[in-house]
Write a structure and sequence with these properties.
With about 230 residues, the protein is of the alpha/beta class. It has one domain: Spore Coat Polysaccharide Biosynthesis Protein SpsA, Chain A. The protein has a seven-stranded mixed sheet, with helices on both faces. A two-stranded antiparallel ribbon has the order 2-3. A two-stranded antiparallel ribbon has the order 8-9. The radius of gyration is 18 Å and the shape is globular. The protein starts with a strand and ends with a helix. About 35% of the residues are buried.
């Protein structure tokens, strides 16, 4: 029997690097706040996927105001996050039942395609995990004090979200002790002893972090409307 599918969308950014008074997930691009584009992507994938949106509790009022202003009625549940991403995901997972699949995704990756989401669920059902990753386009060097060394870029991948897991696996993994090296869900699962399965992500699936990312995301979203 097919397992139920959940989308855990985490959006706790403060907009510091964009130098905005408004957190980046609420900034408007291509006619909608970033976060609404992200949630629409999951709804395009499937109207039955259950969306859990993890926000700082202080942002609940702002989000509800935006939903009214943009007439955003896509069904989703709100969950208060924690001080860190690790804590926010852990809190969100409390709403995900056992024996299901959960796709954990950055709220500020609004260009995730429904085919990417579908692949993540399909592969996680088979392998336990499915983490989107792309090949490096540019050369890389490792810095060691006052020296640098060229590395073989073919041996490395840039890790994205979605990162999708069988819920029993990732909920148990999040019982590990938090530390600064656990930068994503794959690293948490790996710390708990699980092997991580990668699949091909997308260069369009950018994470909005800096001001230029907003410009790029707006251009790409606008091009998709044509």
């Amino acid at each position: 029997m097919k397992m139920e599918e959940y989308a855990l969308v985490v959006a706790g950014g403060k907009g510091t690097r964009i130098k905005s008074h408004l957190p980046k997930q609420f900034l408007e691009v291509a006619g909608l706040p970033v976060l609404m584009h992200t949630l629409h992507a999951f709804n395009r994938y499937s109207s039955t996927v259950q969306i859990i949106l993890v926000l700082p509790e202080d942002d609940f009022g702002l989000w509800k105001d935006l939903c009214q202003r943009y007439d955003f009625q896509l069904p989703h549940r709100l969950q208060a996050g924690g001080e860190t991403r690790f804590q926010s995901v852990k809190k969100g997972l409390e709403q995900v039942p056992d024996n299901s699949l959960v796709c954990i995704h950055d709220g500020v990756r609004p260009l995730v395609h429904e085919n990417l989401i579908a692949a993540s669920f399909r592969l996680a059902a088979i392998h336990g995990s499915a983490v989107a990753a792309v090949r490096l386009k540019e050369s890389i060097r490792m810095i060691d004090q006052d020296k640098t060394q060229a590395l073989d870029r073919s041996r490395f991948r840039l890790i994205q979200t979605p990162q999708t897991f069988q819920s029993d696996l990732i909920k148990k993994a999040y019982q590990v002790k938090e530390d600064s090296s656990l930068t994503d869900d794959a690293s948490v699962a790996e710390r708990a002893g699980h092997t991580i399965s990668l699949f091909e992500g997308s260069y369009e699936n950018i994470k909005i972090t800096t001001a230029e990312d907003l410009v790029i995301a707006d251009a790409l979203l606008q091009s998709h409307k044509k």
